Amino acid sequence: MKMKTSLLVCFLGFSLMACQAEEINDKEPGDVDTPQEKVYQHKGLDRYEEPITLTMVGEMSDNLRGLEEQFPGETLRENRWTELYKDVLGIDIHYDWIVESPFYYQRLSNEIAFGKLPDVLKVDAVQMRQLAKAGLIQDLTEIFESYATPFTKYVMSQESIDPFEAAMIDDQLMGIPEVISDLDTMQYIWIRNDWLENLQLDPPQTMDDLLAISKAFTHNDPDQNGEDDTYGLAVTNYLWNNVGGLTGFMAGFEAYPTIWLERDDGQLVYGGIQPEVKEALSVLQEMYKDGQIDSEFMFKDGNKIKEQVKNGEIGLVFGEQWASFWVEDSLNSASNADWQAYPIVSATDQPPQMPISHQVDHFWVVRADYEYPEALVKLNNLHLEKNWGETADYEQYYSTPFPAWQFSPVTPYPVLKNLEAYRDLEYARQRGDDSTLHGEAKAIHERITAYLQEGERIGWGWLKTYDSDGAYSILDQFLKNDQILFDKFISPPTETMMELDNILMNRQLDYYQNIILGNPINDFDSYVQDWQEIGGNQMTEEINNIYREHQER
After folding, report:
1. Which positions of the chain have pLDDT values less than 50?
2. Maximum Cα–Cα distance across the chain
3. Using an 8 Å Cβ cutoff, are 216 and 199 in contact?
């Protein structure tokens, strides 16, 4: 099964689909071939003659509790989505159990150990391989091919890497990947613009510029309060956090410590043991010694760093496009706080490349003896259709503006939707005409307008992400300039990875942290040797064997 297409084809396909949808919707009300009749003719959206029951297990979170408060009478068990699935598809969803998100996989592992599987469940890559090896889940190759609607297949082929490769075990599709946009994980430098202005500094063009800004933000009183109470760079205890981590910083040194790279000879090597990482760690160590990084970063997770940002203690944060909402609370303590996204910068004479890991970490699988495996595909079809298809009801099922989509047990989405929304908004801005905006782009435009015209704070983060000089404008340029570096390994974990990957990743984190804290920089060489001897060399061999097989197909 090959679902991969180029980004260019995806962009063109999305535009063509939008045009076709407009043409269909322009038909007179009396026409026979209405959008709903046309779409729902596909067997992937057929209703079962007799309603069926589908059992699942679920996760509860603060977000969902907040959502239940916004929609009185609706809960994770019974809500607009469960009603829709029952009414349109004849699928009655029952949850065997629901636990807090942090305990979901622990509870699931216990249930799997005792053979207690619901009809459909979400698992990680290791659990999928274990269940497949034990014969406890079904091969979904033909099921997906037959029941996925053309729109579902199109949406799931939008990723720049083929998400189905990660779900293939012995040439069988053992799960439907929960596809999360890899491009949305692009990192930017979020900088306090007001601090730059206070110190009469220009935005960074090179790594040297960025290091000079970090030093100035630490020692030159950027908030002009007369106190030595600021740091240059935010660093969380987990160095690879999507906000406050160091992935974007290290990329400036051509160091890519969390992905697999392809050498000139076609072999894959692990980025975390390459010499460029050593240089980046050496610079971070000097920044730590100089006080540019909080001396207690080892004890501070993302929430604690966010509190420091809120209090006006930090002026540089590497983070994804949604970091605008993460830093927004700093406006509470300083009304003039002004954050702006900037592209990552290079320490060499080469343009920087942003490393992107594949985001296929979880999969929906079906119990081996469940009679209706196609029900899982039907749920995905309808979720996509009611949010982005020809019969979409965006404000009822996706954003009201509260995120009603979170009530659905399956939540696939077009992974290019955010980038496309930016492009739609930019096109409207250039034309001076917002009348053509619809769906997500229209909702974002309304929030930005409410901020610009009425001072509604809810639109500030949207402006910083989607404006002409916002985060997505940078992503757009990085794509056009071929500055995205994708992880080359996307298959299910190898035997050695299942056994040792967590150990190796923890060892890597320990070494990196301690070097930043002041351990000899040559400890990096010891780490490389440990990594290779503990299992890294074996893992590299297994990964290259799989990579060669895929290349030969």
Report:
1. 1-38
2. 77
3. yes
